[in-house]
Amino acid sequence: xxxxxxxxxxxxxxxxxxxxxxxxxxxxxxxxxxxxxxxxxxxxxxxxxxxxxxxxxxxxxxxxxxxxxxxxxxxxxxxxxxxxxxxxxxxxxxxxxxxxxxxxxxxxxxxxxxxxxxxxxxxxxxxxxxxxxxxxxxxxxxxxxxxxxxxxxxxxxxxxxxxxxxxxxxxxxxxxxxxxxxxxxxxxxxxxxxxxxxxxxxxxxxxxxxxxxxxxxxxxxxxxx
Length: 225
What we know:
three-stranded antiparallel β-sheet; 41% helix
């Protein structure tokens, strides 16, 4: 499959470079304003850098605008987060609600560590417990947005998100990327669904049952609706 799509994969990288360059140029001044607001709102760095696992299990540092107090991972829910999380800053809460905190990942895309579309980058402790099915998520570069994002984000269980990611990889095309990009705009700016879980708290990552994961996912995934 991958040999047949070599030209498309090359095209995907070209699109990533062009879109990230154009976006970073357009967002340069807004980024400066956001950086100033973060510094005024709470002490700590503007950017939050964290180790994530990328394609072929290579680790890299993901870039995000800081939305929580400095050193938040050592307090409260740790890696997890809730809608009313006291570690969230005032500016950070707004950034998360509008998905703006993820935009510095355009730098990761430009560096070749991420793509515009792909499975969301997993925390290293999560990938260490992946089974054979789940490791398929690591065949592609992680993305700023994904099929799971446009299908519900944190309203979905980890089992559902992983199924969607694997389905995306097995059925990937440039056309599918385009659909996901446009649906992301709707999801983030209009519906704004799934920033947090249904109970207002994002689910902890739990190992899923391989037998359940290996069901026919292609029949369960629909790009529309």
